[in-house]
Amino acid sequence: LGVSGVRAQEPAMNYDESRVPAYTLPDPLTMSDGRRVADAEGWMSERRPELLALFESQIYGKAPGRPEGVHFEVLSEDRYALSNMATRKEIAVYFTDDEEHFMTLLLYVPNKRTDAVPVFLGLNFKGNHTICDDPLVTPSTLRTEPGKGPSEGFPRAAAASRWPVEMLIANGYGLATVYRGDIDPDYDDGFQNGVHPLFYRDGQTRPAPDEWGTIAAWAWGLSRAMDYLETDEDVDAGRVAVIGHSRLGKAALWAGAVDTRFALVVSNDSGCGGAALARRRYAETVARINRLFPHWFCDNYKRYAGNEDALPVDQHELIALIAPRPVYIASAAGDKWADVKGEFLAGVHATPVYELFGSEGLYGTELPPADEPCMSGRIGYHVRSGGHDITLYDWRQFVKFADNYLK
Ligand code: GCU
Fold it and tell me: Does ipTM surpass 0.95 in this model?
């Protein structure tokens, strides 16, 4: 569909709960051929692969695996970072044999450690140097749409409120991050300037309709970061939590679904195409997200614009793909655009899959009160008061939840 075709099918935005249409969610425990999934084994060997393939071909697009040429280089290491509390490393993760294409991973690990540490890994929006007030972080090269970003790049520590590095270090966690633009710049350029062209077949000029968009590319980058973390002695690669806010929360969920090496997954305000159920058509819809961000998903996803009931999956099954690994879904009360209730219900409807594994998930039909996190099961949830953002409050809950599984 061209842009005008997408727009023609786009209904008005709905922010009224009473106008959410009646819908039937696909049952995560029923196979496409009608068979019921009986147990965890059947989930893992049959239903999970089936669902993964549907999400891949219809929503995010298929990504290549780990290229043979992937290799790493520690560019800097400093044991006296953050007032001597942490060791900072910067690592080039080269995507190919030649060292032309790479992303820079910024890693902090606590100096007070007796063993390899658990780590939170997430992409950042504005550059590695923006996540905290550390003067020695190498500034990322800004890769926004020509003419759109600040000409000097973002200032150091510009996003510090979103990355409580000291709090994580004090709690025994490392933090690893990569600038999203290092993997694929976040604008529609026909997939020329990110990682996609490295994988084009002869004569191919853009991904096929079932091949990766930008969100899948970001998720792929998170897996390449994990490839490195597996080699770092200071990191316990069996205890890496993948996290993301908003569009990067969509990427974190997809990374966690695809790559079972991630021991825990955190979605913050991920909304449409993330934790929120598509069939609710509340606020941002499939039509709208594909019109505004035509590069995020695979082209097949555009077929469901204004046609959500035809989707063979819904986002509760994305959460279910993470089972039995713990997942935390965070919403913000003022973030109507992300469909708070739809995010909560996705957790609730993923629960039967967690129960197959003998774990508890998330329960209820109404949203829990603001600022009262639910952490009794493997699907954690909170709605924070306030707006679309990731705050110290959110992170404190993620740490508390992670302490149950990664400590
Ligand atoms: C837009 C977009 C959302 C996305 C958000 C963000 O609002 O419509 O889907 O999550 O940007 O990344 O901040």
Answer: yes
